[in-house]
Amino acid sequence: MPQSNNSALVLIIDNEELVCDGCRLELEKAGFEVLTSNSVNEGISLARERKPDIVFFELNMPGMSEVNIFDILLSDIPDIVIVVITAYATIDSAVKVIKNGAYDYLSKPFKPEHIISVANRCMEHRNLKIEARHLREERQIYEKGFITFVSHEMRSPLIAVQQYLESMVFLSKKDSNQQFLEILNKCSIRIKNLEDLVNHWLDLERVESKAFVSSKSELNIKEIILSAIDDLAPISEKRGINVTMVQPPQELPLIMGDRQSLLRVIINIIGNATKYTAAGGSITSRISFDDFYVKVEIADTGKGIAPEKLQFIFEPFFRVLGNKEPYRGSGLGLTFCKKIMDAHNGRIEVSSKVGSGTVFVLKFPRQ
Question: For the domain that residue 22 is a member of, what is the CATH number?
Answer without folding.
Answer: 3.40.50.2300
